[in-house]
Amino acid sequence: MKIHGLILLFFFAGVSFFCRAAHDPLDSLKVVIVAMPEDSNKVNELIDLSVKYRNASVDSALIHALGYAEEAKALAEKIRYPRGLGYALKAIGIAYNQQGDYVPALQAWKEALNVFELAGIKAGVANMENNIGAVYYSKSLEDSAQHHYLRSLNVAEEIKDTLRIATALMNLGTLYSNKPATYNKALDFYFRSLPLNIAIADNDNLGTNLVNIGEIYLNKSLNVDSTRADNERDMDSALVYLLKARDVEVGTTNLPYALKTIGIVYREKGNFEEAIRYQQMAYDSAKIFDLTADMGQALLEKAETYRASKDYKSAIPVYKNAEEIFKGIGQDATYDLEKVYKGLSAAYSEEKDFGNAFIYQSALIDVKNKIYNLDIDNKIAGSLFKYEDEKSQGEIMLQKEIVGKQKLIRNGFIGGFAVVLLFAGVFFTQRNRISKEKKRSDELLLNILPEETAEELKATGTAKAKSFDMVSVLFTDFKNFTQASEKLSPEELVAEINYCYSEFDKIITRHGIEKIKTIGDAYMCAGGLPATNATNPFDVVQAGLEMVAFIEKNKTDRMLKGQPFFELRCGIHTGPVVAGIVGIKKFAYDIWGDTVNTASRMESSGEIGKVNISGSTYELIKEKFICVHRGKVKAKNKGEIDMYFVEGPLS
Fold first, then answer.
1. pLDDT for the residue numbered 243
2. DSSP string computed for 254-307
3. Does residue 3 fall inside a structural domain?
């Protein structure tokens, strides 16, 4: 929903923005600040300079913004200026947040919150609680987000800060806007914020507020369990608030979204002509502001309207225009591409052009696999964020405990040994609690990375790539995944994949094999890393046989119940690889090299219910397993390769 953009917007509430003139005045400001005496005025000027850099179009602007905020923090600590310290920490957090470094941003804002609370600066408290809540919301930690939003609301109401009250209410509405069961709660918060946004005459907030209300009513109107009269009433309410939003947002970058959504309402009401008109207006206004994603979404909804009106010939070229835009955007448009391919497949099918319908149905399946992997990546990213957040909080708590211990020991010599004993009990209790939290965080990290790699990452902040001379790489793939997925609901499909992969995880754990990743319906693991061993070819082949046996048994069970089933191909190759962590935000342990490519070809060149291995792996395991030589088999981009089917272990 549109509210997602709003949350981040309010990170900057109360901050003056800087527009660059033809000449850059920042250099002269820096000269003035350097000459200033070290007092509160200099702290404030440093913070202001940080803000100016944050919004300036200069190279390394955010680096400069962070640097001046850090300098303000150091000076505020030196001269004991709490207000300046709090706002310097706020500026540090904003700079990190704009760089996408959410853990240090969160830590800075939590420190700022503590400073504001101790200094009694309640406007700062309300602001930081909102910012902290927004980070948790962006990481799908909704309980934590709600906690901080409610605290922001309580403090803002206490000091009668209308802007922050409205912000907190709208953000709370967001928490309830994604589930039909809580739509009415979302509306309650949105309606409470509406008169406040009107009172402060903030058209940007007001337009967003109105759009959010309109979208909730639109979603309510699509509820199949409601009466027709209720649905029509909700649809009419949606149109009322969206048209008000349109009037408020004229001339702003928010207008295309409102126009596109109005078009959706008209489509649902069956007024296709008006729907097309608004969706074209949405595209035109987005083009004026060069809003690529909004342009694509306007075209997508326009194509959907053509399809709803059964004008498939008009729908197809509009879908394709939207497809080109979304392909240019990349991964962020994956979910939009899913709608495009679904629409194109359906439109071509209605036109009896089954060749193109098949092409776009295949593209739809591919993009669904990407979405599945994106969802997994997001879960991993959320887990890593939670781990890093808990780790940083544990370090802060431990630091506080050490300071507290020093104070209590000092007072203990004055007040008596009993006080020291009391502190010792409290300290060790707290230390044990921190230790348990750290253990839980470590277990979470070990569920994502190999132990050696995780330890290196925690110790140094990085993990170097390593070469391994002999690693056995295994790939599996579900042969009839597409057919089975068409007969299963999304929930059933994910549940069945999870069931199979969970068993695979148990099998490789028994054999000391490292899981690398899943790619849609493909499963990849490797033996012989991160700890090298000479048994990995035997371990991996045995694991492959057990995987095949499990899938065959599961196939039999599901056939007896008349349920769709998977069939498995499995391929293995042994050779050298390079392994390490990729990325700076979403850690992933991965392996590279020709060995990986060849193992993948072993899988794709295999047969259902068979473990297909290369000649290299055969030479290593032939004394312990029964193998059947297939001869030289042509593999894509590899030429002819000696391949063997493994029948089972030698008795």
1. 95
2. THHHHHHHHHHHHHHTT-HHHHHHHHHHHHHHHHHTT-HHHHHHHHHHHHHHHH
3. no
